């Protein structure tokens, strides 16, 4: 992304989203596209440059482009932050949290217990208008890609999967908060899962 775009993502609510997007956006194939009046131009190395007339449109361009390139990864992240991996991928499967892998059950227990929707909702209300516009645009861009790519069509490898669905605002701010785990909390899922159980996985707390 051009430096100007990243500068728009400097607040606590958006900083981690920016870093989450940079690496995956750069993997796309070279092209030029215009979506809803937002210009997305890719260099010969596949790096997208997004030009928009407002922060919300800029967020839309980033969300749409990300979904085009890596929609399945983002759809899976929505499952992860809602603590639903065991439901869709099995209890014994694994989840990447930060740089470590944990069982899906441990990941589910951790994300349900660690992410506080009431606190995150309050933080959202206190975020700057610019931050909210960027994230609301990102949300709309991702969901627009699902609309135009067919039923539940986040990407070729997961198209039609039962766990692919439109993203909600709640999903988004849980995902933003979860990305902050890269700074240190990513080592905690096993401890949360085994707390009070002698190391055995605890039952899933309600969402």
What does this protein structure show overall?
β1 and β2 form a beta hairpin. The chain has 207 residues and is mainly alpha-helical. It starts with a helix and ends in a 13-residue tail after the last helix. The strands form 2 sheets. A 3-stranded antiparallel β-sheet has the order 1-2-3, covered by helices on one side. Strands 4-5 form a two-stranded antiparallel sheet. The chain is globular, with a radius of gyration of 17 Å.
Number of helices: 9
> Order of helices and strands, N to C?
HHEEEHHEEHHHHH
Largest sheet: 3 strands, antiparallel
- Give the amount of beta strand, in percent: 5-15%
Q: Please estimate the helix content.
A: 40-55%
CA radius of gyration is 17 Å
Pick out the low-confidence regions: 1-33
Please give the order of strands in the largest beta sheet. 1-2-3
Total strands: 5
Give a quick rundown of the structure.
With 207 residues, the protein is mainly alpha-helical.
Which secondary structure elements does this structure contain, and how are they paired or packed?
Elements (H helix, E strand, L loop, with lengths): L2 H5 L7 H11 L6 E4 L2 E5 L5 E4 L3 H27 L3 H5 L4 E4 L2 E4 H11 L2 H10 L2 H20 L20 H11 L9 H6 L13
Antiparallel strand pairs: 1-2, 2-3, 4-5
């Amino acid at each position: 992304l051009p430096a100007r775009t990243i500068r728009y993502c400097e607040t606590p609510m958006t900083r981690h989203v920016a870093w989450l997007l940079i690496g995956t956006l750069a993997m796309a194939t070279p092209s030029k596209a215009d979506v809803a009046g937002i210009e997305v131009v890719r260099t010969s190395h596949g790096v997208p440059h997004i030009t928009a007339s407002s922060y919300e449109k800029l967020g839309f361009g980033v969300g749409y482009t990300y979904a085009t390139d890596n929609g399945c990864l983002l759809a899976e992240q929505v499952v992860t932050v809602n603590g639903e991996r065991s439901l869709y991928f099995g209890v014994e499967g694994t989840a990447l949290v930060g740089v470590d892998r944990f069982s899906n059950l441990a990941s589910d227990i951790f994300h349900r217990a660690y992410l506080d929707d009431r606190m995150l909702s309050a933080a959202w209300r206190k975020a700057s208008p610019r931050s909210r516009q960027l994230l609301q645009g990102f949300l709309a861009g991702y969901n627009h890609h699902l609309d135009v790519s067919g039923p539940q069509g986040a990407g070729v490898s997961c198209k039609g999967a039962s766990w692919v669905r439109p993203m909600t605002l709640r999903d988004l701010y849980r995902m933003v908060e979860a990305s902050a785990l890269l700074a240190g909390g990513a080592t905690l899922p096993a401890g949360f899962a085994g707390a009070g159980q002698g190391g055995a996985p605890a039952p899933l707390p309600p969402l």
